[in-house]
Design goal:
Keywords: Hydrolase
Strand content: under 5%
Oligomer: single chain
Distance between the termini: 35 Å
Pfam families: HD
Number of strands: 0
GO molecular function, one term: hydrolase activity
InterPro entries: HD/PDEase_dom (IPR003607), HD_domain (IPR006674)
Order of helices and strands: HHHHHHHHHH
CATH architecture: Orthogonal Bundle
Largest sheet: none
Number of helices: 10
Length: 187
């Protein structure tokens, strides 16, 4: 599967700008980690891009719709990683790809939320302030803090270094991401 094919699948199931941006940010972070670790960048990027592809169209069946579609296309490793991207689903983590996706999903979304309440967005954002916001349960309350912790642990990364890495990746793409400001009360 090519990235363009993956993008077409995503856009057929997802119209929400925030979900499309989330897919893109996780794609960018997964690609960067693949580069860093010498892994297959296209495979990792596609896993990041498609991990929530069916969430808007089929919320009660997520992630089964996208996983089944990936199985049909012979994309077994990506399908498995997506089927395992939430620890409460009880799917075993068999590969570094599986562990990377769980480690990057929630925290990338959280970092974007942190950037959106700052006047300078990603510019100057530091892991220290992200970690402080993680301790504030009312901020981005839908982000599962335990999932963030477990993801970093499974992936074998220090949470601060992980956050720094993600911020750095997102900063390199900030013009494309065009993070819109949101009021802190909306997060």
């Amino acid at each position: 599967m090519t990235r363009q094919e993956a993008r077409t699948i995503l856009e057929q199931m997802t119209t929400s700008e925030s979900l499309l941006r989330h897919a893109r940010t996780v794609e960018l972070v997964m690609e960067a980690y693949a580069n860093k670790l010498g892994e297959n960048t296209d495979e990792w990027a596609i896993a990041g891009l498609l991990h929530d592809a069916d969430y808007q169209a089929y919320p009660d069946q997520h992630p089964n719709v996208i996983v089944d579609l990936l199985h049909e296309k012979g994309e077994e490793r990506i399908a498995h990683a997506i089927s395992a991207h939430y620890t409460h689903w009880g799917v075993p983590y068999e590969t570094t790809l599986d562990k990377a996706l769980i480690a990057c999903d929630e925290i990338t979304g959280f970092i974007v939320a942190c950037a959106q309440v700052r006047p300078q967005r990603l510019e100057g954002l530091e892991a220290k302030s992200v970690m402080k916001k993680l301790k504030t349960s009312g901020f981005a309350a839908s982000v599962d803090r335990e999932e963030v912790r477990k993801g970093a642990e499974l992936f074998g990364v220090d949470i601060k270094e992980h956050i720094d890495f993600i911020i750095s990746v997102l900063q390199q793409h900030q013009a494309e991401l065009q993070l819109e400001p949101i009021a802190q009360g909306e997060v």
